[in-house]
What we know:
19% of the residues lie in helices and 28% in strands. It is built from nine helices and 40 strands. It has three domains: 5-232, Spore Coat Polysaccharide Biosynthesis Protein SpsA, Chain A; 259-360, CATH 2.160.10.10; 379-466, CATH 2.160.10.10. The strands form seven sheets. Strands 14-17-20-23-26-29-32-35-38-40 form a ten-stranded parallel β-sheet, with no helix packed on it. A nine-stranded parallel β-sheet has the order 13-16-19-22-25-28-31-34-37, with no helix packed on it. It is an alpha/beta fold.
Amino acid sequence: xxxxxxxxxxxxxxxxxxxxxxxxxxxxxxxxxxxxxxxxxxxxxxxxxxxxxxxxxxxxxxxxxxxxxxxxxxxxxxxxxxxxxxxxxxxxxxxxxxxxxxxxxxxxxxxxxxxxxxxxxxxxxxxxxxxxxxxxxxxxxxxxxxxxxxxxxxxxxxxxxxxxxxxxxxxxxxxxxxxxxxxxxxxxxxxxxxxxxxxxxxxxxxxxxxxxxxxxxxxxxxxxxxxxxxxxxxxxxxxxxxxxxxxxxxxxxxxxxxxxxxxxxxxxxxxxxxxxxxxxxxxxxxxxxxxxxxxxxxxxxxxxxxxxxxxxxxxxxxxxxxxxxxxxxxxxxxxxxxxxxxxxxxxxxxxxxxxxxxxxxxxxxxxxxxxxxxxxxxxxxxxxxxxxxxxxxxxxxxxxxxxxxxxxxxxxxxxxxxxxxxxxxxxxxxxxxxxxxxxxxxxxxxxxxxxxxxxxxxxxxxxxxx
Length: 466
């Protein structure tokens, strides 16, 4: 195996998260932090097989989540970042003399642009190691970048081992590095065999000691200062996780605004990183867009719409609607208080009104399902009118069947269509009907009891009523 690779450190338990899951599976904008980090590694052209994740606490959950091609090794004892990388030595050896990117699995803002630019700098400088650093306003908790009187890099000191003067330094180690693999393997060997490298406050193997070892060998060590201080950010508890979510939320909103999307008020607006929104679309308060959702130009989403993995056409309007894995055509109106369930495809110029639920169905262009109806496992034609209170009765208790409604049909209020059943083109059903047999084209179907009037019934049955 050849080519650059990445090792992602993800063995931490994250006890302050108070979660059953590994810390790296905590989500920022609906996406686990480890996914952000893997995407950054891929930005350098790496395939999944060239990425190795060091697991530990909750390894079963983490391994099940990772993409199939990603390699894993386990760190059974938590003895520091250097020890974590030691567990991946066989993986490193398999990549020969290439370079390896070391990333923390809980640092979602270490973006692909930063690591790619750092690699270019690392390669041009012919460095054995390159430390990605950043200048931050509050450096507490981070390792400080030390420089000599000429401003050249001279080392890294961890917070626990720093003196008062060093703690004032604001250039910090992000925890991300590029190493020449062979140089790193030599440094790891020396670190493991020399007891002095555990004589620190935490009694751990620091990966930063590999930097010291390489410098002592006369190898070139560089620093690449990131443009963004956010690359150093991680989360150790739910409060810090909320802060990461807010930073990411505002960054994504700003990106869409600058691309021509109207988000006049961002109150309650949350947009996932993979969502695509066309120009002049409008996203209103309380709207949440998740997954691979795509919003067309001039569409209006919200207020209070939640869409996941949905495609919404140009000029459509989706108000106070919950939708998952659905397609909505151009100029269609949905809501308020509608629910669109997986497998639903709604055409253009459709009206899906208040308190309507559509599940695993196709709805043709120009159709109107205006209010208080359930359409499940149904193929609805074009220009159909579905009255209020209608339902396609699709489940027998054991099996589900489909209903078909032809073009230009008229389904009267409170009609129940008991599947499997077909209503033909231009056919009508009378209000209050239960339809259990196919209705031919152009026919009227009535499936209700004849009205009976019993005179003076109230006087006989309720003599106390005046």
